Amino acid sequence: MKEINISDSKTEIIKKIPTEKKKVEEKQTPQPQQKQPPKIVEDKKSLKQKINKTSNNISKKKGMLILSIIGLTVILGIATFYYFGIYKYNPNPPEDNVANVTTNYIRSKILSNIFSNILANEPQEPRTEVSPINGLLFTQSEMNELMERRPIAVMINNHSQARPQSGLNSAEVVYEVLVESGITRLLGIFWSQVPDKVGPIRSARQYYLEWLSPYDPLYIYDGCAKSDDPRVNACGNIYLYNIKVIATIGSWRWNDGTRYAPHNEYNSLLSAWEYAEDRGWDKFPSEFESWEFKNDELVDQRGDGYRYKVTFHERINNGGAYDAIWQYDPSTNSYNRWIGGRVDIDQETNTQVNAKVVIIQETDITATYDTKARLIVDTVGQGDAVILMDGKKIDGTWKKTNRMDRTSFYTSDGEKMEFNRGRVWISVIAQSSGKFDIIEQ
C-alpha cells in the first residue's frame, strides 16, 4: 500500500487554487471597447439644425403674414377709392327717368350724353343752371356747351308696327296727338341728351309745326301733309315759317327683323348738329319762353298716385292699340307708360318710357273730310287740362296766343303752373272723341 504524503498534497492544492482563481478572474475581466464619439457634440449639431429649421419656418410665416396684410390693404384701398371716389361722388345725377319694370325689360345701358367724358373723381361744379325747356339742372360749364346747340324736333312714328321706338327717354318734351284713322304720332324735343338714334321717323302735320315753332328747332321728318287748305298744308307752311329743315338728311333705314318701311327710318342727332353748324344754326334761340319749375314735393306731401288711361279716339279705337296708360311710381316720383296694353319701351335704353310730368290737354279736333282725312287741331286758344305730378291729379287750364307762343298751363286758381324738373309729356285729346279716366286707385 502506497503512502500518501498529506503535506505535499496540501501544498499542491494550495498552489492550484490561486491559479484557477486567476483563470476565473481572467475570464470575468471585461474586454476593452472601441472609443465612441462624444454624444454632447452630436447633440449640439442636431440642436443647431433644429434651431435653423425653426427660424426658417418662422421667417416664412412672417413673410406670408406680411404679404397677406399688404394684399388686404390694397383690396381695401381699391374698395375705398371706388366707393368714395367713383360711386358716392358720381357726377351723373340719379336717373329720375328710369322706371321699375315688372317684365323682362331691364336697363341695358346708361344714356349717352354730351357730358359723358367728365371724370367722376374731378371736383364737381354745382348745378345752378336751369334748363329753359324742362327745368333740369346743369353746371355752368355744361350750360355753356348746351347753349351752342339748338333743340331738335323729331317726328316719331307711333304705329303699332313701329314699336318700340328709339330715343323717347332722352326727349325733353314729347307731344302726342292723333293723325289719321285713330293712329297717334309723337313729336319729341331733344336737347341735353343724345341717344344713339331716334325714330322711326314719320311725316309732318300742321299742328306739330305750331307746337315746335317756339323752340325754333332743327326739324327732322320724312314727308308732310300737302293740301290747298292752309290749316293742314304742312308741306307749304314748313317753308313759309322758315323752319330749319333737316328732314331726311343723315337718315338711314334699319331693320331688326320685325319692322319694314315705312316704319324703319332713323336719324342721328349728332349728324343733325353737324349739318346745322355748317348752316349757322348752332345756337340756342335767343328768345325763348321758359316754363316755371320747382323741386319735387317732399315724400309726405305727395299724393297716392293712381293708374290713368288716355283714349285718343273712342269711335275709331283700333282695338285699343293707341290707348295710353300712365301709372304713378312713388319710388321715382314719376309716371310709367303703357301703350296698346303693353309696356312702352325705349329701345335705345331698354327702359320703360316714363315722364316726370304728364299733361292731358283738351282741344277741338275736326276732320277736313278730304281724300286724306286730314285733321285740324286747334293749338292756339285755350281750354281745360289735367296735370299729373307728385302723385296728384291737378285740374288746370292751357293757353296759347299764337304760333310762336309756347303753350302755358295754369292752376284752377289762374296761377302759372310750376312743373317738376324732368321730361314733360303732353297728350292732346279731342273734347268730342277723346277720353281721360282713372282706371285704378
Question: Could you explain the architecture of this structure?
Answer:
There is one protein chain. By secondary structure, this protein is α+β, with helices and mostly antiparallel strands. It has a single domain, classed as 3-Layer(bba) Sandwich (YerB-like fold). It contains six helices and 26 strands. The protein has a ten-stranded mixed beta sheet with strand order 7-6-3-5-4-25-18-21-22-23, with helices on both faces.
Shape: globular
Arithmetic mean pLDDT: 83
* CATH superfamily label: YerB-like
Strand content: 25-35%
Which spans have pLDDT < 50 for at least 5 consecutive residues? 1-42, 86-112
Cα-atom radius of gyration: 46 Å
Distance between the termini: 160 Å
What spatial order of strands do you see in the largest sheet?
7-6-3-5-4-25-18-21-22-23
Q: Strand tally, please?
A: 26
Number of helices: 6
Sum this structure up briefly:
With 441 residues, the chain is of the alpha+beta class.
Question: Could you outline the blueprint of secondary structure elements for this entry?
Answer:
Blueprint: H1 6-28, H2 39-87, E1 129-130, E2 137-138, H3 140-146, E3 152-157, E4 173-178, E5 184-190, H4 206-212, E6 218-220, H5 234-240, E7 244-245, E8 252-253, E9 265-266, H6 269-279, E10 292-294, E11 307-311, E12 324-329, E13 334-339, E14 342-343, E15 345-346, E16 351-352, E17 354-355, E18 357-363, E19 365-367, E20 375-377, E21 381-389, E22 392-400, E23 408-411, E24 418-420, E25 424-430, E26 435-440
Parallel strand pairs: 3-6, 4-25, 6-7, 10-24, 18-25
Antiparallel strand pairs: 1-2, 3-5, 4-5, 8-9, 11-12, 11-26, 12-13, 13-14, 13-17, 15-16, 18-21, 19-20, 21-22, 22-23
